[in-house]
Amino acid sequence: MTARTVVIGIGNSMRGDDAAGVAVADRLRPRVPAGVEVVACDEEPSRLMEAWEGADSVVLVDTVSSGATPGTLHRFDAGEEPVPARAFRSSTHAIGIAETIELARALGRLPRRVRIYGVEAGGFETGASLTPEVEAGVAFLVRDVLADLEEERCTSAP
Amino acid sequence: MSSRRTIVTDYLARVEGEGAMTVQLDGDRVEHVELRIFEPPRFFEAFLRGRSFLEPPDITARICGICPVAYQTSAVNAIESLCGVEVPEPIRLLRRLLYCGEWIESHALHVYMLHAPDFLGYESAIELARDAPDAVERGLALKRTGNDVMNLVGGREIHPINVRVGGFYRAPTRRELRELVEPLERAREAALETVRWTAGFEFPERVVDCELVALSQPGEYAIERGRIRSSGGLDLAPSEYDEHFEELHVERSNALQSIRRGGGTYLCGPLARYSLGSAQLSPLAREAAAEVGLGEECRDAFRSIVVRSVELVHACDESLRIIQAYEEPERPAEPVEPVAGTGYGVSEAPRGLLYHRYRIDGDGTILDAKIVPPTSQNQLAIEDDLRDVVGRNTGLDDDSLRALCEQTIRNYDPCISCATHFLDLQVERVGVGSTEPTKERRRRLRRRWEREK
Hints:
The complex is a heterodimer.
Chain A (H helix, E strand, L loop, with lengths): L4 E6 L9 H9 L7 E6 L3 H7 L5 E8 L8 E5 L19 H10 L6 E8 L11 H25 L2
Parallel strand pairs in A: 1-2, 1-3, 3-5
Antiparallel strand pairs in A: 4-5
Chain B lengths: L3 E6 L10 E7 L2 E8 L6 H6 L7 H5 L7 H15 L6 H32 L4 H7 L1 H22 L8 E2 L2 E2 L5 H5 L2 H19 L11 E6 L10 E4 L4 E2 L4 H4 E4 L8 E4 L5 E2 L2 H8 L5 H9 L12 H22 L15 E9 L2 E9 L5 E7 L1 H19 L5 H13 L5 H4 L5 E6 L7 H15 L1
Parallel strand pairs in B: 2-15, 6-11
Antiparallel strand pairs in B: 1-15, 2-3, 4-5, 6-7, 7-8, 9-10, 12-13, 13-14
Helix pairs in contact in B: 3-4, 4-5, 4-6, 4-12, 4-14, 5-6, 6-8, 8-12, 11-12, 13-14, 14-16
């Protein structure tokens, strides 16, 4: 069985910087190594779990709201460590991405490798486009995720 | 012994939004209970002024990530009634279907992820998932089906974009809706299991004795429209709401608290809906309720989780009924021209009655808006419950008492992000007798549940 990697861009493209995850997914799609699947998704927990179902490795890209300077990049390895829940409370949803990951872990539905990339948001205004700081952050995230996928491909190659 | 004890929780978890609570105890006497809510008050009402009469469904939907359809529906009801537009039956039924999707997603989220852990002695759904993966998976699947209904009818589930004044931007085809039949049939089975599951929980005692207020509509369990009725004999058109209910500003809270003029505290939400309208639930939902011993009325605050589960059965059943009978409308929306005046709209959000009022001028500019969410209306009832529940359980230690307070608040599935933001929980007491340690209480709840399994 081939190991499968999924990249999931999370967000709402109608809500300003909340679109960052989706923007990263859009830019990554034509550039990822063979065998890597790229999808855009909202935070709905079972849809996220379905998106990474059967994958050995998942990369999640989302907007972060932790109080850092807008555009700041974050990276968490959630394969073994729990995700800091507060960082991802970017919507009013009771179940955010951090909770979904922990639920999936408890249910035995979490891929072995889980990496989360985030960019600190500036604003979530309806209908607005990405702020310049987050726009720049998106470009860096695309680069970082590609490097990560490349490294994964090299290390997991037979 | 008279040692003062203070319990503080900075953050009231597992409610939609964030909130604060203070309980003060002197021995076994409850001195003071208050729910505090802080938010830029009525931000949205101010934001609506000067906007077009066609914008409220889009703007107000953003008040809540869990019940956007409720906001959209009350908004379009208000504007359409003012402008003299009655949407054709297929459009109304599509709205009802969309609303059922929201009920399913919201109730499933609350029952499984937010409230059930309280009853079973778990700190969170994540902990619960380790011991009861099947139950949590069932809850996730139910919620997902609700989201799928909202996605298909509403365009995008978190803030559906397909709803407009006069109808929809695009009506789904019969074939598209039929894709929902199978998942909804599975969801209905899961909802029936949910009723049996929750009915087996242990329920702390609390009977709600205030007036119950819910919408009522001949021939159906009122969701997306209806007259305002109460256990005290009210039977009002939406336009009469302000004559009978008022909002008071209390210093501690940025959310206004509603009271019935001349009456006082009242309650809306599942218990009120069920108690006033259980006869109109689908036969299957009524059967499920009877099977677990719910009577025609239910004023038992902690059994609200069972009532929500019964409403889940109804919402699945009703969705299937609407889909089976669906006829595509001739056009997705009726034209709506502005009429100067005031429009009133109501609907049953998952948490209860949601009232909107808009005054617009002849060009369709909004001059004034008023929105009364269910959580504001239930605030006083929540405080009454807390007073009673704390008074009955002064023997619990601080942690257990705090947990029980939170469980009590969650009976109302309070959408504090609609009424407010940021809140913390505090229990203060003077002089305490013997208490049951938290760990033991948790263990006892779990042991009981193990036996049930």
